[in-house]
Design goal:
α2 links the parallel β2 and β3. The longest helix has 17 residues. It contains 20 helices and twelve strands. α17 crosses α19. With about 475 residues, it is mainly α. The termini are far apart. It binds glutamic acid. The site of glutamic acid has 7 residues, from loops.
Length: about 475
C-alpha cells in the first residue's frame, strides 16, 4: 500500500472537541497499525479566529490522549507562497481563472436568478480584458473551472460516492485578498505532506469532489478518503453543549482517565470484531481496521462512557490510581501533600476498596471523602428508611458496646459480632448494617460493610456511630 501518511488538521479556533479527538484517534490508530506516519497540520489561515493559545491547548489535549505526532506540525499561515504558486500554475494552464465580480454584483445576480452557485461570468473574459483589469488593480479572486462530467471515489467508510459536476460551481480557490480558501490550502498541503489517506469528519464529504478535481489539476496522486460519521447525542441530534461537556479537557478535568476517553472515543462507531470493548491503545492498534467503521452516526452516550471509564479504573494498577488521586485528595483538603507511609497504605486500601465503584478520579475525592473525614451530612432518604426511630438507637448502642469490646477489629470479627447480635435481637443483619453504614459514611450504599469498617478503623467507627446516635434519631 506504499507509505501510509495521515494527518490531523485542526483549525485553532477553539479547544479540541470530542469529534476532533475521535478523528485524531482514528488517524493515529491507522498510522500506528500500518507503520505509517501521523502528522499534524494547523489550519490557521483564518487570522481573525485562529489563536496561538488554542494551538497550545490542542497540543496539550493530544498529548494527554497519548497521540504523539511525527515530524514538526505544518502551519498553513507559513505556506502562503506555496498556495499562491499552485494558484498561479492553475491560472497559467487554464484550470482556474480570475474573477472580478464584486460581492455586491454577485449578490445582485444571485437574487435575480435565485441560484446561489456562481454563474460563470468571468469564465469567458478575454486575455485583454483580464490584463486590463489586473493592470487597473481591480480586486480579483481566483476560481477553479469546473468542466462537465462526474467525479467518483471509493470512500473507505461510505463506499462509492459519485457526484455530477452540475452540483459543483466554479468555486473560489484564492480570495481577492490573496488568501487561499480552505479547499485549496488543504489540497496543496496534503500533496506537500504526501498524505496517503484523508480520514476526517463526514461533514467534509461535500468538499471531497472539489478537492479531487484540484488534485487532478495539480497533477498529483489522489489519496484515499475515509469519512467518519458524526457524533450524535442519545437524542439523535448532533453532539453539542446541550448534551453536556464536549471538550476533551473538560473530561480530563472531571477526572476521567486518559485510557477511558481514548477507548470510548475509539469504539464510538467501531467495535472490534471480537466484541471486546475495553481496550488500551495497544490493543486498539492491533484490532483497528478502517473498513470496519460503521456508516451510521455514532451515539455519544455518557452512561456507556462511564461504564468504560469504570472498567478502566478497575483494571488500573493501584499505585497508578494513587498517583492520579493524591493531588485530588490534597486539593479537597483530605490529606497532606506528603502523606506518611501509614497514610499511604491507608490510601491504597481505600483505592482497593472503592475503585470498582468510581468512574472518575475526582470521585475518589468527592464520594470517597468519608475515608478521610467524618460525614457532615447523611443521605436523607436513607435516614428516613434506616434510622427511623429510637429503636434503632437502642440497637446501635448495644452494637457500639460490642464493637468497643472488640480487641481485634477486622472484617471477620466485626461480621461475627453483627451476625450474633442480629440473632440475639431477633432482627436481620441488615438492621445493623444499614444504620452503621449510614453512620460511618453518610451514604446508603458503598463497599462491603465489614471490610469498610475494618479499613476505617475502630476509633473512627466508634466516633462516627457515637455522633450518629446524637444526630440521627430525629423522629420518635
Ligand atoms: N481544518 C478542518 C477542520 O477542522 C479539517 C480539514 C480536513 O481534514 O480536510 O474541520
Amino acid at each position: 500500500m506504499g507509505n501510509i501518511r495521515v494527518r490531523f488538521a485542526p483549525s485553532p479556533t477553539g479547544v479540541l472537541h470530542l469529534g476532533g479527538a475521535r478523528s485524531a484517534i482514528y488517524n493515529w490508530l491507522f498510522a500506528r497499525a500500518e507503520g505509517g506516519k501521523f502528522l499534524l497540520r494547523i489550519e490557521d489561515t483564518d487570522a481573525q479566529r485562529s489563536k496561538s493559545e488554542y494551538v497550545e491547548q490542542i497540543y496539550k489535549s493530544l498529548r494527554w490522549l497519548g497521540l504523539d505526532w511525527d515530524d514538526e506540525p505544518v502551519f498553513q499561515s507559513k505556506r502562503m507562497d506555496a498556495y499562491q504558486e499552485s494558484v498561479q500554475k492553475m491560472v497559467d494552464d487554464g484550470s482556474a481563472y480570475y474573477c472580478f465580480c464584486t460581492p455586491e454584483e454577485l449578490e445582485e445576480r444571485r437574487k435575480a436568478s435565485g441560484d446561489y452557485s456562481y454563474d460563470g461570468k468571468c469564465r469567458s473574459l478575454s486575455k485583454t480584458e483580464i490584463d486590463a483589469n489586473l493592470k487597473a488593480e481591480k480586486s480579483a479572486a481566483v476560481r477553479f473551472k469546473i468542466e462537465t462530467g462526474t467525479t467518483e471515489w471509493i470512500d473507505r467508510v461510505y463506499g462509492t460516492i459519485k457526484v455530477n459536476h452540475r452540483e459543483i460551481d466554479d468555486f473560489v480557490i484564492q480570495r481577492s485578498n490573496g488568501f487561499p480558501t480552505y479547499q485549496l490550502a488543504v489540497v496543496v498541503d496534503d500533496i506537500f505532506m504526501r498524505i496517503s489517506h484523508v480520514i476526517r469528519g463526514e461533514d467534509h464529504i461535500s468538499n471531497t469532489p472539489k478537492q479531487i478535481l484540484l488534485y487532478k489539476a495539480l497533477g498529483a496522486a489522489i489519496p484515499e478518503f475515509a469519512h467518519l460519521p458524526l457524533l450524535n447525542g442519545t437524542d439523535g441530534k448532533r453532539l453539542s453543549k446541550r448534551h453536556g461537556a464536549t471538550g476533551v479537557d473538560e473530561y480530563r478535568d472531571q477526572g476521567y482517565p486518559t485510557e477511558a476517553v481514548f477507548n470510548y472515543l475509539a469504539i464510538l462507531g467501531w467495535v472490534p470484531k471480537d466484541g471486546n470493548e475495553i481496550l488500551n491503545p495497544d490493543d486498539l492498534i492491533k484490532r483497528f481496521n478502517l473498513d470496519d467503521i460503521a456508516r451510521k452516526s455514532a451515539i455519544f452516550d455518557l452512561k456507556k462512557f462511564d461504564w468504560v471509564s469504570n472498567e478502566h479504573i478497575k483494571k488500573t494498577d493501584p499505585e497508578e490510581i494513587y498517583r492520579h488521586i493524591l493531588p485530588i485528595l490534597v486539593e479537597n483538603d483530605l490529606v497532606d501533600a506528603e502523606p506518611d507511609s501509614t497514610m499511604r497504605q491507608y490510601i491504597l486500601k481505600f483505592i482497593d476498596l472503592m475503585r470498582n465503584r468510581f468512574r472518575t478520579y475526582q470521585q475518589f475525592g468527592e464520594l470517597g471523602s468519608y475515608f478521610f473525614k467524618d460525614p457532615e451530612t447523611y443521605e436523607e432518604k436513607a435516614v428516613r428508611k434506616n434510622w427511623k426511630d429510637r429503636e434503632v438507637n437502642r440497637r446501635m448502642e448495644t452494637f457500639l458496646a460490642k464493637l468497643k469490646a472488640l480487641e481485634d477489629f477486622t472484617g471477620t470479627t466485626i461480621e461475627t459480632v453483627v451476625r450474633e447480635l442480629a440473632e440475639e435481637l431477633e432482627i436481620s443483619a441488615g438492621n445493623l448494617i444499614h444504620p452503621v453504614r449510614l453512620a460511618v459514611s453518610g451514604f446508603s450504599v458503598g463497599p462491603g460493610i465489614f471490610e469498610l469498617l475494618e479499613v476505617l478503623g475502630k476509633e473512627t467507627v466508634l466516633r462516627r456511630v457515637h455522633t450518629a446516635l446524637h444526630k440521627l434519631p430525629l423522629i420518635d
